[in-house]
UniProtKB/TrEMBL annotation:
Underlying gene: mqnD
Protein family per UniProt: Belongs to the MqnA/MqnD family. MqnD subfamily.
Keywords: Ligase, Lyase, Menaquinone biosynthesis
Primary enzyme class: lyase
Native source species: Candidatus Marinarcus aquaticus
GO molecular function term, any single one: ligase activity
Gene3D superfamilies reported in the protein's UniProt record: Periplasmic binding protein-like II
E.C. code: 4.1.99.29
GO annotation, biological process: menaquinone biosynthetic process
Entry function: Catalyzes the conversion of cyclic dehypoxanthine futalosine (cyclic DHFL) into 1,4-dihydroxy-6-naphthoate, a step in the biosynthesis of menaquinone (MK, vitamin K2).
Pfam families: VitK2_biosynth
Protein name per the record: 1,4-dihydroxy-6-naphtoate synthase
InterPro entries (alphabetical): Menaquinone_biosynth, MqnD
Length: 287
């Protein structure tokens, strides 16, 4: 059977949404999924190079890879009243050109941050290193992502929520697009449809068996947080809204791409619905 590379980040929501496949609860037809875990910016860069068949990405990256990858409508993470946090040492004041650590050039939080703080001096580092960089004074501030938004040091405080930046820029209350998945366009269409359906089912099964799967992930040491933090984090980023993109989420993606285009980060303006796998193909085949 064909081996399909599926790359995801090592943070709790990505692992949770994929591991129904890893544990054998859900399997694709006529293929074996081989999973790779790496930090999100490494995956963004790998997608630019076309390294994986299916890959988790920051939504902000997608316009740069749209010709080679289709946007999947499952395993998505959005913020709704929450999201990454711009943090600093308690009591400190940030200058106009403050030095900040971001988790990657192509992350969604980086796009929104650059629009909101055009004069900031940016350095990029692994998201696991950002908190210590702020505490050690290597940078004035940093944007925390993933589980770090729940567990950061008490010597730090939030300067600004990326959610608030998003709401100000969007001008309307839409969920904050953070991460999703994409699939290589060179894969046969019938196979691509099956792979997407497999991933949709995996997220649905994981969500329906949250307590069992969470316990298995903790018992096998596959995640970095304790059980209460995992439950809280999954409630935020791996839930009913992660199974399939909704119309509201499509609108949010379109607003993100509109903002990126308006501020000169994208060469063309795209609409997210135009870049999905055309699943109607299967209906035509059946006729």
């Amino acid at each position: 059977m064909k081996t399909i590379s599926v790359a995801h980040s090592p943070d709790a929501d990505d692992i949770f949404m994929y591991y129904a496949i890893k544990f054998g609860w859900v399997t694709p037809k006529d293929a074996v999924f081989q999973n790779i875990a790496d930090d999100i910016e490494t995956l963004n860069q790998a997608t630019l190079k076309g390294e994986y068949d299916i890959c988790a990405i920051s939504f902000a990256l997608y316009p740069f890879v749209k010709e080679d990858y289709a946007l999947l409508k499952t395993a998505v993470s959005f913020g709704n009243g929450y999201g990454p946090k711009l943090i600093k040492k308690k009591g400190s004041k940030l200058k106009r050109n403050f030095k900040v650590a971001l988790s990657g050039e192509f992350t969604t939080n980086a796009l929104l941050f650059k629009i909101a703080y055009p004069d900031a001096r940016i350095t990029y580092m692994n998201f696991l290193e950002i908190e210590d960089a702020v505490l050690n004074g290597d940078v004035d501030a940093g944007v925390l992502i993933h589980e770090s938004i729940l567990t950061y040091n008490e010597a730090l405080e939030v300067e600004k929520e990326i959610w608030d930046i998003w709401q100000e820029l969007a001008g309307t209350e839409l969920p904050l697009p953070l991460g999703g998945m994409c699939l290589r366009r060179s894969l046969p269409l019938h196979a691509a449809i099956d792979y997407e359906q497999t991933l949709i089912k995996a997220v649905k099964v994981a969500n329906s068996n949250k307590h069992l799967l969470s316990k298995m992930l903790i018992d096998q040491g596959l995640i970095r947080v304790d059980a209460p933090t995992l439950d809280k984090y999954l409630d935020l980023y791996a839930n009913d809204d992660s199974i399939e993109l909704s119309e509201l989420q499509y609108d949010a993606l379109d607003k993100l791409y509109e903002l990126g285009y308006k501020h000169g980060f994208y060469e063309t303006l795209i609409k997210s619905r135009d870049f999905l796998i055309p699943t109607q193909y299967e209906e035509f085949r059946a006729q």
